[in-house]
Amino acid sequence: MTTGEKIYAARKKAGMTQEELADRLGVSRQAVSKWESDAAYPETDKIVELCKLFALSADDLLLGAESAPRKDPATEERHEENKERKPLFDWNELHFEYVSKTRIGGLPLVHVNFGLGHYRAKGIFAIGNVATGLIAIGFVSVGLIGWGLLSLGLLAFGAIALGLLFGAGGVATGVLAFGGVAIGVMCFGGVTVGYIAVGGCAVGHVALGGYAQGFYAVGQTGASGTHAFVMPEEYENLCSYANMHIHGWLGEFIKSVARNLCG
After folding, report:
1. CB 243 within 8 A of CB 231
2. Would you give the DSSP letter of residue 232?
3. Cβ distance 223 to 214 under 8 Å?
4. Cα(107)–Cα(75) distance, rounded to whole angstroms?
5. Which of 56, 102, 158, 161 has CA 20 to 30 A from 70's CA?
6. How many other CB atoms are there within 10 angstroms of residue 205's CB atom?
7. Does residue 85 have a pLDDT over 80?
8. What does pTM read for this prediction?
9. Burial code of 233-252, b = ≥16 C-beta within 10 A, e = fewer?
């Protein structure tokens, strides 16, 4: 048996996948695949780890190919003919992975893992198809700061952004949210729902926009609620009411948005 065949056999005997073995050794799945196909050989430190993991001696792992009996050429030729032909293009090769040696709290400082397929990056800084980290960038990202098509985090940016404090995206949630559809305490967007909502269609305690519905509603095409004002016809009434009943920054904010709605 070759070194690669021995690694394959030992891994199978241990009931491990290539990805699980790669995680144990701190390498990529592609590296394990190349070892097992004899396209590459492990570095010295990885050979030591393999021997410890599978209870093999270095001689058993490395000298097996030399000590094996010589195969009959005719038999070997038939064996090669019966092997499955390698595809001209291997989609698995469209993959890149980098794992930094520096670790913090058991996680790599940087983990980059992306390609065609399901590849996950997990680290302090994570970039991958699926990324989890303090700062995460990926098609699906979860982190303190998340950036991706679908992102979840304290601060989230993406097509769908679910932020605890801040969200910005096509669909966004957060204490402060910006998006085509925005939901939050204070939100800005095409369609907004929040305590303070500013948008084309706004619904909230304070709603300001094209059409507004709320306790305080200021709309350009229509407004409905307890205190509703349509711009620009009722701009003066709104300013008078705000000066008397809505004090501080909120009153100034409402008047400022109302002026913009007046065109």
Report:
1. no
2. T
3. no
4. 49
5. 56
6. 15
7. no
8. 0.62
9. ebbeebbebbeeebeeeebe
- 128 burial type by CB count under 10 A (0-12 exposed, 13-18 middle, 19+ buried): buried
User: Would you mind telling me the total number of residues written for the chain in this entry?
Assistant: 263
What letter does residue 84 receive in the DSSP assignment? P
Phi, psi values for residue 55, rounded to 5°? 55, 50
pLDDT at residue 229 greater than cutoff 80: yes
Amino acid identity, position 62: L
> Rounded to an integer, what distance in angstroms lies between the CA atom of residue 258 and that of residue 263?
9
Q: Which ranges of the chain would DSSP assign to H, the alpha helix?
A: 3-13, 18-25, 29-36, 44-54, 58-62, 64-67, 73-82, 235-245, 248-261
Give first-to-last CA distance, the chain, whole Å: 81
Structure tokens at 93: 């090769």
Reply yes or no on whether the pLDDT at 73 is more than 60.
no
According to the model, what pLDDT value does residue 89 have? 46
In this predicted model, what pLDDT tens digit does every residue of 118-132 receive, in sequence order?
789 999 999 999 999
Helix-, strand-, coil-residue percentages of the chain, each rounded to 5: 30, 45, 20
CB-based contact 56:6 (threshold 8 Å): yes
Kindly report the backbone phi and psi dihedral angles of residue 106, in degrees, each rounded to the nearest multiple of 5, phi listed first: 85, -10
Q: At what angle do helices 29-36 and 18-25 cross, to 10 degrees?
A: 110
Q: Judge contact between 37 and 29, C-beta under 8 A.
A: no
Give pLDDT, residue 48: 87
Identify the three-state secondary structure at position 182. Answer: strand
Instruction: Provide the sign of the torsion angle of the four alpha carbons 20, 26, 29, 32, taken in this order.
Output: negative
- Sheet architecture: strand order including 120-224: 95-99, 110-115, 120-224, 227-230
Residue the block writes with tokens 């990202």: 141
